[in-house]
Amino acid sequence: MDTLKRSSTIWVPTLTTLLDTTWDTIESQLDSGPVNYLIPIQKFIFAFASLCIAGADPANSPDIADKGYIRMDRWLAVQLLPIVPITAFQPLVEIFLHSFPYPYFFVSRDYKKLYEFVESEGKEVISRARTEFKLSKEDATHNLLFIIGFNAFGGFSILFPSLLSALAADETGVQEKLRKEVREKAGPASGLSLRSVQEMDLVLSFVYETLRLNPPVPLQYGRARKDFKLSSHDSPLVMRDPKVFDDPETFVPDRFTGEKGKELLSYLYWSNGPQSGMPSGSNKQCAAKDYVTLTTSLFLAHMFLRYDSVTITNASFTAVDKPTP
Fold it and tell me: Can you tell me the distance from the alpha carbon of 239 to that of 85, in angstroms, rounded to the nearest whole number?
């Protein structure tokens, strides 16, 4: 939390600078046909998280600048595969994929490269961890790498594509509404900031609705410490409960706007707790839940400051419409 707080002054400028580079790269390739956004978005997320959390710039390491996101993907894969739900080929999947942790040597080289990058480029943050929080250099580096990789990179690598997929599937004309709101709230006078994005009700609602239907962590696991009575509504999926959400299987961009929409935040549990709640050491709610929603809102708002509209098909940009000078 101390690191996030100290990064607040560079959070928005770092995001906008890296996004400008990302969109420039995508635009430069559009003349040749559709441009898949998954790799450019992952490169952006990796650089953004490394800079804002550890003060580590991938541009200073050719290997990491080129392959850092791939190394992170492989490291995450061996941790997540044992718990990823797979319904086909049962019970073989359960026996051979879900019954044991995978050996570290599969990704030891990738992890060593990532560790050395954070150790070398994140010296200031590591030094503060040692002097102010009495952590060893090794513990500080491992923890920074876990936060960058598992929490930030892993989560945003699911959330941002889900957001773009929802935008691609929309048939309600929401892009025009988003563009209008963003340019009203983040015009030349105020600019794009953490403060201005909190005034964008539709942008925030669009992000919340994405999290409702496609949370980065779809399942939560826990072990009961004592016997208790488990009670719930009839719906097996809490954020698709028809007793709470009207038309729960449909993406409704403005679902969380207005007074009624704000009340629904108490039932938005993507962060292992309600969106209206506050994380603490006792409730195990995502400590950076507000950073997640605000950063994703900044991502969406930045897009509609830069473009009037975007056309997306099959995880690829096919066209972008820029404002007339």
Answer: 18
Which residue bears the tokens 């995450």? 76
Contact (CB, 8 A) for 145 and 137: no
DSSP for 11-78, please give it. HHHHHHHHHHHHHHHHHHHGGGS-EE-HHHHHHHHHHHHIIIII---GGG-HHHHHHHHHHHHHHHHH
**69/53 Cα distance (integer angstroms):** 16
- Strand runs labelled E in the chain: 35-36, 309-313, 316-321
List the structure tokens of 83.
Answer: 């718990």
Between helix 123-133 and helix 137-146 the angle, nearest 10°, is 120
Amino acid at 88: A
In a 3-state reduction of DSSP, which class is residue 320? strand
Q: Tens of pLDDT along 82-133?
A: 888 788 888 998 888 888 888 999 999 999 999 999 999 999 999 999 999 9
Residue 124 token pair: 């200031």
